[in-house]
Specification:
Layout (H helix, E strand, L loop, with lengths): L1 H16 L5 H10 L7 H23 L7 H21 L1 H5 L5 H26 L5 H32 L5 H22 L1 H4 L1
Length: 197
């Protein structure tokens, strides 16, 4: 049983760190790029809400409560990334402010729901035949959260290096990284089946 638990934790970690599914990483970069190490509580809250939304989608799919067209979800995932990137580019002052971030919190939760739906089909196969869907879900969500913390730490560390060693202005750093993500995500949107049909 413990072996299965760690298998599912590892599965969650690999889900996020999979090089072919880098959309998840792009979104995490956008969530965390405006912040510094001393904002770790805020970043952790954003990432945890994203995980909560992601997990809620998996619950709804695993128990066949919701079923959504896969092509629509595959189109919406890069759209959420584009929206987050545009927010950082068009509102750099807002992205950098240390104020209550109700809009970002809600966005992280909603975007988590959409990203979770993208993996719902594969997760349903994972839990199929399992006698404890909830335990699989908890282990998988734990793996996702662990990998997200690793990614966020790496982004915060690279931001620290970029702003101290290379003397990037914090606002410029956010805008440049967000613009690079926009350049990466637009081809994904264009190549999606929903967009091209």
């Amino acid at each position: 049983m413990l072996e299965n638990f760690w298998f599912n934790v590892n599965y969650g970690i690999n889900h996020v760190l999979d090089i072919n599914g880098y959309d998840h990483v792009l979104f995490l970069i956008l969530l965390s790029i405006p912040y510094l190490f001393n904002n770790w509580k805020r970043v952790l809250l954003l990432v945890s809400l994203f995980t909560l939304g992601h997990t809620l989608s998996l619950v709804l799919a695993a128990y066949s409560i919701v079923s959504i067209n896969g092509n629509l979800v595959e189109f919406l995932i890069p759209i959420t990334i584009l929206v987050a990137a545009l927010y950082n580019v068009l509102n750099p002052k807002q992205a950098l402010k240390n104020q209550k971030i109700n809009v970002l919190l809600l966005s992280a939760l909603c975007f988590g729901l959409i990203h979770g739906l993208g993996f719902a089909r594969e997760f349903s196969i994972l839990v199929d035949g399992s006698d404890n869907t909830l335990l699989v879900l908890i282990a998988f969500a734990l793996g996702i959260e662990l990998s997200q913390v690793i990614i966020v730490f790496a982004v915060l560390f690279l931001s620290f290096l970029g702003q101290t060693l290379f003397r990037f202005n914090r606002r410029d750093w956010v805008m440049v990284i967000s613009s690079i993500v926009i350049g990466l995500v637009i081809p994904i949107i264009i190549e999606s089946e929903l967009f091209s049909s």
